[in-house]
Amino acid sequence: MPVVDGVELPETPLLDELEKGPWPSFVKEIKRAAVESEKAMKAGKKIKLPGAAKGLLKVLELSYKDKRTHWKHGGIVAVYGYGGGVIGRYCDLEDKIPEVWHFHTMRINMPAGWFYSTKALRAICDAWEKWGSGLTNLHGSTGDIILLGTRTEHLQPMANALAYLDKLYGSPAPFDIGGSGSDLRTPSACMGPALCEFACYDTLEACYQFTIRYQDELHRPMWPYKFKIKCSGCPNDCVASKARSDFAIIGTWKDEIQIDQEAVKEYAKAGVDIEKQVVKKCPTGAISWDGNELKIDNKNCIRCMHCINVLPKALKPGKERGATILIGGKAPFVDGAIIGWVAVPFIPADELIDKCCEILEAIWDWWDENGKFRERVGELIWRVGMSEFLKVIGQKADVRMVYAPRNNPFIFWRELQD
Amino acid sequence: MVAQKVEKEPEEELEPKTDFGPPHYSIMLHPIIKNNYGKWKYHEVVRPGVIKRVAESGDVLYVVRFGSPRLLSVYTIRDICDIADKYSDGYLRFTSRNNVEFFLTDPDKIEPLIQEVQEKLGFPCGGTWDATKGEYGLTNIVHTQGWVHCHTPATDASGIVKAVMDELYDYFTDHKLPALCRISLACCANMCGAVHASDIAMVGVHRKVPKIDDDAVRRTCEIPSTVAACPTGALKPDMKRKTVILDKDKCMYCGNCYTMCPGMPIFDPENDGVAILVAGKLSDARYPPQLSKVVVPWLPNNPPRWPEVVQTVKKILETWATHAEKYERIAEWIHRIGWERFFELTGLEFTEKLIEDYHRTPYLYTTFRTSAAFRW
Question: What is the pTM of this model?
Fold first, then answer.
């Protein structure tokens, strides 16, 4: 049995292969937690779940040998007052590896944009070292802080540790649990105006407001299935909202791209081939350059961001800013993978949060009433029709919602029928 | 006799609190970020991994990015915090693709930071691109839990990602690619990682029907919801025996029934594996968002390092990098050269498994505009 710093580790010949190579190794992380938590315990620190990381090494090594998972469906586990945010997980090797028989996940609502002070992160680490496996994901696919693995009886104390993280652990603020199951999943946002000059609305504030206003929807699963909101500050969509959220809020603008002609010339002088890299790459041929002046036919511009990405010192989104809402993005289960599509072409930035809330609440009422079990909102729209959905959200059909009109004339004229 | 007092932890005695929400982001922002919030003027790339951000006020912030393994122990997070305290005034950020970023005001500290992170954490600096030059680095792979923590995976996640990133390491630390390339992995078609619009996606797939354990179905499953979970109508209730019957010809091995019902395990060590999809994208830049397409229907689960998957991903990436023009993502490159040429250049085999798509997705979807790019 290998011994590291006086701590015995299980034999893991297969996992050891994943410690090799230049990319940082998750196996090293699990081993580190195994060694350091045992050392901390020997030094007198309170560790409520000794041997958890060591247990995970044993289970994972077996999975690598057996080429299958050894985790079972979760039973119902929860913390006081909430129906979501904790994923029950049990190991099918209870008798062999009792340290990880219970290995529940807690999802913790991250700060918008994944910004942290070290005080906050250290506090989470101290609490999780005490009450859990000491292993995390920064971050999960939806964006939460993932705390990987603890026992049922430690869930509530850990939730309390987070709820009083300021008082007990010196964090600048407490942390709350995120979403799971058929509820509003933790909303997420790109770095937006915090760091990026492309942001067309305040993604962080929007994300925070949705999260705070919809705490009940986030914590208590009550819908047909999950619902995700993601805030992207511009059409580059760095948080992949179009594919990964039911309700994607994508920053955009209505007026003209702002041009600094001097800065364009400087780019040209510095070796940027404006013709080849910018003009020829414009998808609608809306740009021209005569070596002295860059002209944009804004009537023809589709705000794709390419020219702005290439020339960030010279070009900026227009001043009349806001967002386009895309609806229905989701993974393949059940009716196939899709990218969200335009539901609201434009909402001005200063009305964005309130207007989105109005639309979200209308959608949720309708979906809750009409959606089948495990039917995402996009799938419900397919089943009953986009025109029905437009009534729900109070929008008129707009040619910007489609790439092209329909092919077939079999149109429902229900209003003419007796 | 005095009963022995069980000492309780403070966390065990406090009243639970609910619905107070996450911390407001403003208390997590570096002072320079807070002071220049919404007032950034432009950015430029100093070197791979380092982006200089200049504010209207004249303030400058160097954002230095490092790749992480996503699965982090609290001990490593404390090391990250030590480094943030030393170099970054006690603030840091994680990106949507599992990178960690530090904020520097002094450009002379960039190299010492990179060196210290490499020494203490082993995290590489990179994951960025320079759109002005049209030179791109590979960013980190987003992925799911796999065998580390999931109950329905068809493959592992972290292990494949580690093996692929080891092989593509130099693309992360340098700007050697012609355009953005987002690689993602989901360990089953449920796709917690929603990888269906990635330039290169690896997806865990099953290939054999679930094994129905009638006893377990009776004990643990709700039959109507299990039957309803089947997208192809392959499951029927057997009311007499209080279980379900499966029409094997209709089953497409998606595993949705197993998500609902532990009584029909679908994992199969020899037949599960990884499908490779390419040519998805989500940004509106130049070419509209696209769903990824299947180009390899199955590769074996070959732990610990999945050589078949690693080599296939590398082959696709390098073939594209060799032949694409500046700014052409995989989707755009294939749009120009054609799928015929894609299969010829990559040497991937085109088979009947790549045709006849799954079509529950109704036709009406095909006219919807999956993009915020339109004319006013």
Answer: 0.97
Q: B355: burial class by Cβ within 10 Å (0-12, 13-18, 19+)? A: exposed
Contact (Cβ atoms closer than 8 angstroms) between residue A128 and residue A146: no
Q: What is the pLDDT, as a whole number, of residue A126? A: 98
A228 Cβ contact partners less than 8 Å away, ≥ 6 residues apart: A142, A184, A185, A187, A244, A245, A246, A247, A329
ipTM above 0.85, yes or no: yes
The helices-and-strands tally (H runs, E runs) of chain B is: 11, 14
Residue of A nearest to B136 (CA): A310
Report the pLDDT value the prediction gives residue A218, as an integer from 0 to 100: 98
Does the distance separating the beta carbons of A163 and B12 come in below 8 Å?
no
A416 CA to chain B: closest CA distance, Å?
23
**R_g (Cα) of chain B, nearest Å:** 25
DSSP string for residues in A172-235: SS---B---SSSBPPPEE--GGGT-TT-SS-HHHHHHHHHHHTHHHHHS--SSS-B-EEEESST
B2 at interface of A, judged by CB pairs closer than 8 A: no
Return the SS3 of A133: coil
CB B191 to CB A331 under 8 A? yes
Give CA–CA dist A277/A166, Å, rounded.
51
Phi, psi (deg, nearest 5) at residue A184: -70, 120
User: CA nearest A137: which of A123, A151, A126, A147?
Assistant: A147
A332–B191: do the CB atoms touch at under 8 Å? Answer: yes
**Residue A67 gets which letter from DSSP?**
T
pLDDT bin (cut points 50, 70, 90) of residue B3 is low
